[in-house]
Predict the structure.
Amino acid sequence: MSKLDAIEVLDRPGRLVRIGPGARWMDVAAALRPYGWALSSGDYGGVGVGGLATAGGIGFLGRDHGLTIDHLRAVEMVLADGSVVRASEAENADLFWAVRGAGANFGIVTAFEFQVDEVGDVGWAQLVMDARDTTTFLERWGAVQEAAPRDLTSFLIVSPPRSGQPATAIVLAMVNAGVPETVIDRLQPLAGIAPMYDQQVVITSYADVMANASREDHNGQGDPTTRSGLAEHITPEFAAAAARLIHSGAVYFFQIRSVGGAVADVPADATAYAHRSANFSVVAFGVNRQRMDREWARLEPYLDGLYLSFETDQRPERLRDAFPPHTLRRLGELKARYDPDNVFRDNFNIRPEEA
Ligand SMILES: Cc1cc2nc3c(=O)[nH]c(=O)nc-3n(C[C@H](O)[C@H](O)[C@H](O)COP(=O)(O)OP(=O)(O)OC[C@H]3O[C@@H](n4cnc5c(N)ncnc54)[C@H](O)[C@@H]3O)c2cc1C
């Protein structure tokens, strides 16, 4: 889809923008910046619009402005029978519902129409912290993030201890405010979680934060081995289980993203992405699938739901984690209607039989 990468303003007063699925998020952010606008996206500018905007879109503006799909107003897409349709609240509303969370199962979106937000300067912080007491660190970060005003969205990466060094954490935080006093006010509770090794805080633009990817073709090899899930709260039990996972040796990258806020304002049945009450999205990267699954099992009792974009376990149970029963049944009915032969199956596949 990479050639379908146009970004055009359709209606300036209404902040309506049409974006091709092959555009990348760093280009979207750069194109919107001159208007004083931004669109809630993921954290990495190199990711494409198509996959993220049909699945959810969890990013640094999430608590203030919701998921990427929450800004969708219409799509144009090619269905399994080759027909080209438009879907919005007014046309093919059921398809529009399905596209916002399970889009890959229903067709190929050739254009997205988003209503974007006015976003000025933002505070952007990168804090490197001591996470040797990993359980306490996770609990404290979760409590600070849940108690914070919506303009703070932070992501946490905890690295396992290496070569005799203690475990460390990187907190990446965006404050959707350009006023230094507000930025410092929001960051202070994060800074108090644990001793800090290093920090950088700047006032910048969303576009500058998103300009974090190379323009070269990537040369990544193979598929990662990940497990993922959503959680309502970082309870002491969750934190202890996560700390055991991080220190197990099975994981080389562990991340928790804060969600909640504006994401939870949208009713659970309004889009196919239904786990609106989750405050956190968790992902772990490992090397060995069996070992990863074994260790991840400790965390599962504390998870409720799944965001499929970070998951690589293809077992059918994952569909049931991602979509509550009512949502999955409705998706199955729509699949039977829009793609009865299951043409679009090279993904987390919703079969017509789910109905
Ligand atoms: C480094 C990195 C960071 C990430 N960070 C975030 C993040 O912060 N937040 C977040 O929410 N996600 C994040 N993701 C996950 C990302 O949302 C998914 O990987 C997404 O599928 C990427 O979309 P793409 O179009 O770039 O990928 P592609 O590989 O082109 O597409 C992936 C899949 O998406 C579907 N798809 C793609 N285009 C279309 C289309 N036009 N119509 C219908 N279906 C389509 C297809 O099933 C396709 O196989 C990240 C991924 C990476 C690699």
